[in-house]
């Protein structure tokens, strides 16, 4: 047994291929449907928005998809990311459990998001695209695409939900440092934005509006594509470098996880860590995978699985997923990256197949867990990642009660340096845990699109 | 030759001892003097402020001083820190030079400062101290001591220059996350603070005032010591893990630096990287060491070497160093960590002995270099560290002109996540490069204390 704290893989062990869980699922995913016709989508339907390299991955049933060398070259700026054993936290909890975390905060933008941003920028550049548009809420995704764009010489326009644009000026500054343009949404640049501003010039904006603006501009311009930071199959695919590295590192540590944990918003960081373990589970391995969401936006724990739109504007394809309804408006929370009405279809399917569990926590208990973690391990977690920290601590305490020396692995998907206002609010006692409103969910679910045979 | 980008040492190669340059200097350092008597200080004079473990290091002439195992255990949370070859930057500059950087931003507080904060917290805890007081300007040091205090169960009170306290709320939040108390200075808690507030209730504060407050409180309370984040010999000593690791990592890379670069404020991050290389230089190795400071606070390039106080309140010992005079007030700049009137006596002495060079840059050219670096390598440098980036790029361009394939190594002492406002100002064209005022320097130097025989 090793007494090391951190486990680094040499650069030449950066994964050479992404792992595609779709190849191993006992039942296939339901196909995405055209928002107009309700018929299954073909690749040509997606071509105005995405490059063919990405579209092929979205529908692929190949188990392994090679990572192009130029993408690996950029990933090597920070990958393989460290696996860390939280020895101080274990001691503080006085638990027989071993706690490991995979730390994705070492990326330039501070989270797992660049793993897919770099791949998407590469495929777009390959196909002659000159400009990418996207939306961002808290800013993690926008700054990741800005970073990737700067490396591949692509212009990047980020439509940032106006309330975040004003509350998180540091995220905006980070995007500008990488050379991107950051525009508060709703904006006068698009028909979608103008319509909202005509009704309410002071609109705070929403992720749904920002998506509509970014998609509208990509559709209008021949040299411009759109990029999405979570939910879709190709995004989950690009994140599987996390789990593959973690497996190799756990082997270095001489351990195997009994429990694998990630927070879930759109689902991609959880997918990245857990899908390679689900492949083992499908072959008989005993490992529990747990997706953790906020009680304020309980997509997996309270939402039905149904066809729904990805945005409020109903411009995106219909995908079958756990959803709270595209019009569900979760209460304000500092885990902006987890405030999405839907869930990756692959993660939704994995839940339905019994490959994983889901649980939900209030935000204040997650901040309490994050502070306990920071005071032992030093790293201040992003508010989103604090949900995974809370679940890991709860599992470690269960092990203590049951006298079991289980091994727990969680994804620390990002650091909180750009979210310190949330910690200030927490210490000032200003964070609340709004009660979940079942009537609001019922209203939003009543608007679910009717899809024949779904 | 390797084609790797990052070089990691295994944890068991974390240095086991600190390197003390004082043991190898051809001429001894001038002793510190008592501020009241002007006589050389004895250990007892420092005992009210510092633990004996630290005082012994301050005056030691031993070449190697063992790092206590509990300190190494904490350092292993993030050390050994990575050495990175900036291959993308080299290509963008089209230079024959090789550029490496040692990255200290991986520490929990985001800079090199925890290297000494952890050691100081340990020695204080060992000697039964219950509480540490300190000052902080930009917040790097305050958050580092807060972190170290939380690990060793020490209360930490940080007096933060009021203007920074208000402009950098995220740094304050970080200190509070680590359980420290952060108080805007001048405060009503001390005689020094009350005197200033009586004159000007809206005083912005200054580092000199904050030092006086922290020192006053430590002197008043038996269970309380004071901790300093730069300048002193023991601080430079604790930082030498940086250079020792870098040497081992350059060996892994199969290279040897021709030029070693660090920014200098109090001098400790530069000392940490450069002192182990100076030891080689004293044995005949050909390596240039360059300390880089802002033109707005040109301690090494324009200040004489003389005995001076460390603070404006004249409470600290007199040390012989390059200084602009304790009353010199540098113009505002975003590199708050480099706005100090003095310089580590060891670094000052090294300059006088010809072991290093010094140069100064304007802040806008440093931000331009930092942005160029971020767009290639991903990491956004702290404003302080941007001075080292600028010098590294200039050296690489010199190599291009001269057709020389030299190897350049610089210390990227911290990331800029908590300083993004500075980047916003830079992009908005709001940063100026104030002309240096020789008359102001002359006035400040006229106040230098008269020391017999110095």
Strand content of chain A: 15-25%
Number of strands of chain A: 15
Structural class of chain A: alpha/beta
- How would a crystallographer describe the biggest sheet of chain A? 7 strands, mixed
Widest beta sheet: strand line-up of chain A: 1-4-5-15-10-11-14
Shape of chain A: globular
Q: Give the overall average pLDDT of chain A.
A: 94
The CATH architecture of the largest domain in chain A would be 3-Layer(aba) Sandwich
Low-confidence stretches of chain A: none
Separation of termini of chain A? 52 Å
Largest interface: A-B, 42 and 42 residues
CATH topology annotation of the largest domain in chain A: Rossmann fold
- Domain module count of chain A: 2
For the record, the CATH class of the largest domain in chain A is Alpha Beta
Sum this structure up briefly:
Two copies of one chain form a homodimer. In chain A, helix 6 packs parallel to helix 8 (169-177) and helix 12 packs across helix 13. Chain A has 19 helices and 15 strands.
């Amino acid at each position: 047994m090793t007494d090391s704290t951190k486990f680094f893989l040499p650069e030449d062990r950066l994964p050479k291929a992404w792992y595609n869980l779709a190849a191993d699922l006992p039942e296939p995913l339901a196909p995405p449907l055209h928002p107009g016709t309700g018929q299954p989508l073909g690749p040509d339907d997606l071509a105005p928005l995405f490059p063919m390299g990405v579209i092929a991955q979205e529908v692929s049933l190949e188990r392994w998809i090679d990572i192009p060398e130029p993408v690996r070259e950029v990933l090597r700026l920070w990958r393989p990311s460290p696996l860390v054993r939280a020895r101080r936290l274990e001691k503080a909890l006085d638990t027989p459990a071993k706690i490991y975390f995979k730390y994705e905060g070492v990326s330039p933008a501070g989270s797992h998001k660049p793993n897919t941003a770099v791949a998407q920028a590469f495929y777009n550049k390959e196909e002659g695209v000159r400009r990418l548009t996207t939306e961002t809420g808290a800013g993690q995704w926008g700054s990741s695409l800005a970073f990737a764009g700067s490396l591949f010489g692509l212009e990047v326009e980020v439509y940032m939900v106006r309330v975040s644009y004003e509350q998180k000026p540091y995220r905006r500054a980070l995007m500008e440092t990488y050379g991107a343009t950051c525009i508060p949404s709703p904006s006068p640049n698009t028909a979608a934005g103008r319509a909202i501003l005509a009704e309410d010039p002071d609109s705070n904006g929403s992720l749904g509006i920002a998506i509509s603006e970014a998609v509208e501009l990509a559709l209008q311009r021949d040299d411009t594509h759109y990029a999405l930071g979570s939910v879709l199959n190709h995004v989950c695919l690009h994140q599987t470098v996390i789990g593959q590295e973690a497996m190799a590192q756990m082997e270095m540590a001489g351990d195997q996880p009994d429990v694998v944990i990630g927070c879930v918003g759109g689902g991609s960081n959880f997918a990245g860590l857990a899908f390679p373990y689900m492949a083992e589970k499908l072959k008989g391995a005993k490992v529990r995978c747990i997706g953790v969401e906020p009680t304020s936006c309980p997509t997996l724990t309270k939402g039905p699985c149904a066809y729904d739109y990805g945005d409020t504007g109903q411009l995106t394809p219909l995908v079958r997923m756990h959803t709270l309804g595209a019009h569900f408006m979760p209460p304000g929370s500092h885990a902006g990256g987890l405030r999405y009405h839907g869930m990756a279809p692959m993660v939704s399917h994995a839940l339905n197949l019994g490959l994983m569990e889901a649980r939900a926590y209030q935000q204040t208990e997650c901040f309490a867990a994050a502070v306990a973690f920071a005071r032992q391990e030093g790293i201040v977690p992003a508010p989103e990642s604090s949900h995974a920290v809370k679940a890991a601590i709860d599992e470690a305490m269960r092990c203590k009660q049951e006298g079991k020396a289980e091994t727990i692995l969680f994804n620390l998907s990002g650091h909180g340096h750009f979210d310190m206002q949330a910690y200030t609010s927490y210490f000032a006692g200003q964070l609340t845990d709004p009660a979940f409103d079942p009537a609001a969910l019922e209203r939003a679910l009543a608007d679910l699109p009717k899809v024949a045979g779904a």
